[in-house]
Amino acid sequence: AGQFYRQALAIHREVGDRRGEGMVLTNLGSLLIHQGNVSESRQHYQRALVIHREVENRTSEANVLYGLGRLYLKQGQIEEAERHFRQALAIHRSGENRSGEGVLLASLGAVYQQQSDTEAAEQHFQRALSISRESGNRLTEGNILLLLGTVQAERGEAEASERSYQQALSIHRDLGSRSGEGDALRHLGAHHAAHGRTKEAEQHYQQALIIFREVGAPHLEGAVLGHLGLLLAKQGQHHSAHEHIQWGERLLREPHHRMVLVELLCQRAQLEHLAGTPEAARDTFAEIEREVQTLHVQSNSSLAKALAETRTLLNQSRARSGP
Q1: Torsion of CA 237, 240, 243, 245, to 10 degrees
Q2: What pTM did the predictor assign?
Q3: CB of 104 within 8 A of CB of 93?
């Protein structure tokens, strides 16, 4: 896809087609988000935004604002994410683009979720879900169901959460959306792991790994390897767990994967604790604390929870061993 987009970009530039150039830059920005390349994605989006405003392509301007909002959200810059989402939402509403409105309402729901306002988040996800079904946008419906499932899980609604994940999985499989299918399997794996269903969790993680390797999403592959490694460690399979986490770490040792990397390092520290090597665990946590100093970690994010869990585990170990 990237190869064809870049060929198209060269042609649009050669013939002076600014509108076409802007649209291809937008597509490249979206592709690079999928691949986890934050810095290059932002560059393409910012160039596209200038062009869309120049040629007055309002729909594509909204799409870029949405993409930039996603980037800011991934980096924990919540205020910037919300500002871009609201600008995009205003454009879609002015153009009566119901499908786009649904996507942006879901994005604002994700902002509320990061701010620990699960009630507002669920309200936005439900409104977005109704619009996606009304407009027949099944791909968006599947993505929103995954978001809804995460907030239901946070509210302790385990059955509703699993039902949302299963519905999302069914939709993505019907559509042939492999990346969406992998994401649904990843969420189901985490759900089953949290509820002690280790065999099902491992099966879902393994299936997700196959898909993320197939579609070329190394940051998601690395994230799943970390979760799978910790799951194996809790079953006493320390050698296999170490191999999974080590491979995931290699995939994530890039600047644009730092948040996912830190979460994986938390899993490595927990593995080292479970394997009976507390000094190694403390050294890993020291590295984690150095990395976290330059990151924007939201209080309700999965990374914040992983940090708290790891810190508590290591503090308990230190207390038992004495001064």
Answers
A1: -50
A2: 0.82
A3: no
